[in-house]
Design brief:
Layout (H helix, E strand, L loop, with lengths): L1 E2 L9 H4 L10 H13 L2 E2 L9 H12 L9 H11 L9 H13 L5 H13 L6 H13 L3 H9 L10 H13 L3 H13 L6 H13 L3 H14 L5 H13 L3 H13 L6 H12 L5 H14 L7 H13 L3 H13 L6 H15 L2 H12 L12 H13 L3 H13 L6 H13 L3 H13 L6 H15 L12 H10 L9 H11 L3 H14 L6 H15 L3 H14 L2 H12 L13 H13 L4 H15 L6 H9 L1
Antiparallel strand pairs: 1-2
Helix pairs in contact: 3-4, 5-6, 6-7, 7-8, 7-9, 9-10, 9-11, 10-11, 11-12, 11-13, 13-14, 15-16, 15-17, 17-18, 17-19, 18-19, 19-20, 19-21, 21-22, 21-23, 23-24, 23-25, 24-25, 25-27, 26-28, 27-28, 27-29, 28-32, 28-33, 29-30, 29-32, 30-32
Length: 641
């Protein structure tokens, strides 16, 4: 399309008046620009021919009459083009919407976006919804995050002139259950049962699964019993979903009852379900005969039981557990000779059996070397971090550090990153060999390599500090102060220390002659980790700090104060004996008031030269650990009392 009109002069104005200032654009300039445009025509890009809305609508109606298998998204594309035109869908009727909804329901996976667009068009042109359409619209709104709108439509009830069906109620139950609003979900289920509609397994499954997630075994069992009584025919998928929900919640015995219900309903469970149930029942077998009988029973239940890696892994693992290593090797070699591709877990089970049952390290090393040489394409799989973990543990327990370092190098060459378990075993090795320098190098390397440090890691670190503090030789310059380690421990996320670990923490601070550090550790134990200070930890703190102040009056005063807090010292000794016998239920109740113990600790610290230092450290700890961590005002009042 070539322009010879005067408006084409606007295209050459930037060359005539670069500043585009209106002062320079005169009549003569426009005339000259028009002449220039006529002399040198400007070629503009051609636009696609516009299809009139009427013709587009006719094509759309023609496509609507075709079977759904011939649509191939072309009809929906025509609908989107009409929707983009102003008033392009003004002739939309309920018949057209019925066809479009039918196409959406015909798809293997429904698109919430398509449902949302079509429903909005119906609302715009005031086309009434059917019950099925409204149910799909509520589901789409919930999937798109418009939960309030979905709940509002559901609360308003079904469309006028229709009665709610089971599917409509099930959508309401699922929405409330996903939001953990199980009370309203139960109410919707009661409405479903009161209408006389036949519930399905999907009416109860959201409740069962969420009760399992909340560890509410009684309510989950009640919902499962109601499902069995209300639904005469439950499909296999529903049974298996309920079974795995009970398994994941930690109720394997209930899952076994669900498995029996599957068999009673003359259904054949899947291979995965059978493998999981076999693994659960095999762990309860006490001897080889029970294990073999269980295998025969499982194979009779599912005669189409094909090769399942998890099943055979469970067989070999339980044979090793029963010290039947010879039978485990028979299964392992039989699978290898049958040209079955074994996974890493099968090799790991046999390596673990060699180490724990037969104590045969050469055989375990030989099998591991085959895995080290594998490229993953043959019958032998490549090793994983668990393979190295078992070998490292055996070498550490048998004090063979050279083999440990060789394994670490092999891991690096294979591109396998050590995990927390292997790093902890290395720390344990250095603690055994009393090599504090290597210990702290390994400890720092964990952070550099982004290996998660857990409570066991810090437990060994505090043990190393404690042993260093009381060691005869002076290696203090090679380690760190307990204050820095304690701050690092507080900064580590998801750490769940045991109260017994703080016994070593207190000992380490006392070994470094740091009673103020004891106070900080005590505050962290109570305020940060929400642990209850029992008599063992309290006695260590009081005796330690009292012993630093004065061997005479203050020491005995501390014991008397400890007696008033914890009760009779004879009861403490009895409780200590009960603790070592691992029968805490026989221990007397010795609840300790944290404020009373804090007053006692400040009393001891105040009578040392470290009183001001302790208060300053607590203020710094409060600033570093959070505003609500340590109540400074209460501490000041306590120190002044």
């Amino acid at each position: 399309m070539v322009l010879h009109q005067p408006r084409a002069a606007l295209l050459v104005l930037p060359f005539l008046a670069p500043s585009l200032d209106p002062v320079f654009i005169t009549t003569r300039t426009l005339h000259f620009a028009t002449v220039l445009a006529a002399a040198r025509p400007v070629q503009l890009p051609l636009r696609a021919p516009q299809v009139p809305p009427g013709a587009l609508w006719l094509r759309f109606e023609q496509k609507l009459n075709l079977p759904y298998r011939l649509w191939k998204h072309e009809t929906w594309n025509l609908y989107n083009r009409l929707r983009a035109i102003p008033n392009g869908l003004c002739r939309l009727t309920a018949k057209h919407c019925h066809k479009l909804w039918g196409y959406i329901f015909h798809l293997p996976q429904r698109s919430p976006g398509q449902i949302f667009e079509l429903a909005n068009a119906q609302i715009k042109f005031r086309i009434p919804f059917s019950l099925q359409q409204q149910t799909a619209y509520i589901e789409a709104l919930y999937c798109l995050g418009k939960k309030n709108h979905a709940y509002q439509i559901f609360a308003n009830g079904p469309p006028p002139g229709t009665l709610p069906d089971t599917r409509w109620f099930n959508v309401g139950i699922q929405m409330h259950a996903k939001d953990r609003d199980l009370l309203n979900a139960e109410q919707v289920l009661q409405r479903l049962l009161s209408t006389g509609a036949a519930p399905t397994s999907f009416s109860f499954m959201p409740l069962i699964m969420n009760y399992c997630l909340l560890k509410n075994k009684d309510r989950a069992l009640l919902s499962y019993s109601r499902m069995k009584s209300a639904c005469p025919e439950i499909d296999l998928q529903s049974y298996e979903a309920v079974l795995f929900s009970f398994f994941e919640a930690g109720y394997p015995s209930i899952a076994a009852r669900v498995y029996d219900d599957i068999l009673a309903a003359s259904l054949t469970p899947s291979t995965l379900t059978t493998s999981v149930m076999y693994d659960h029942l095999a762990k309860r077998a006490n001897n080889l005969t029970e294990l073999l009988n269980l295998g025969v029973r499982i194979n009779n239940i599912n005669r189409e039981f094909a090769f399942d890696p998890f099943y055979y892994a469970s067989v070999m693992a339980n044979l090793c557990r029963l010290n039947e290593m010879d039978y485990a090797l028979v299964v392992f070699k039989g699978l290898r000779n049958a040209d079955e591709k074994l996974d890493t877990i099968h090799y790991n089970i046999i390596i673990g059996g060699y180490l724990k049952v037969n104590n045969d390290m050469p055989a375990a090393e030989s099998l591991a070397q085959d895995m080290f040489k594998s490229d993953g394409t043959g019958k032998v799989p490549q090793p994983d971090v668990s393979t190295f973990g078992m070998l490292v543990q055996w070498y550490v327990d048998n004090d063979q550090p050279t083999k440990v370092f060789s394994l670490i190098q092999t891991m690096k060459s294979l591109g396998i990153k050590p995990n927390t378990y292997i790093a902890n075993m290395l720390l344990h090795l250095w603690n055994i060999r009393r090599n504090r320098i290597k210990f702290w190098e390994t400890f720092d390397e964990m952070k550099l390599q982004e290996i998660q440090q857990d409570a066991h890691t810090f437990g060994m670190a505090w043990l190393s500090l404690y042993l260093t503090a009381y060691a005869k030789r002076d290696v203090m310059q090679h380690v760190r102060h307990p204050r820095g380690l304690f701050r690092q421990m507080l900064e580590t996320p998801n750490l769940d220390p045991h109260v017994r670990m703080f016994d070593i923490v207190i000992k380490a601070f006392l070994g470094y002659k740091d009673p103020a550090g004891c106070l900080i550790a005590y505050e962290a134990m109570i305020r940060h980790y929400k642990l209850q200070c029992d008599w063992i930890t309290a006695e260590k703190i009081v005796r330690g700090i009292a012993g630093m102040t004065d061997e005479g009056a203050w020491y005995h005063s501390g014991l008397l104060k400890l007696k008033s807090i914890l009760g009779d010292l004879n009861e403490i000794k009895l409780a200590r004996g009960a603790f070592h016998q691992k029968s805490p239920e026989t221990s007397p109740q010795t609840d300790i008031d944290p404020d009373d113990l804090r007053k006692l600790l400040f009393k001891f610290v105040r009578n040392t030269k470290l009183a001001s230092t302790a208060r300053k450290d607590l203020v710094e700890a409060r600033e570093a650990m959070g505003a609500n961590y340590i109540p400074i005002d209460a501490l000041k009042n306590t120190a002044a009392s």
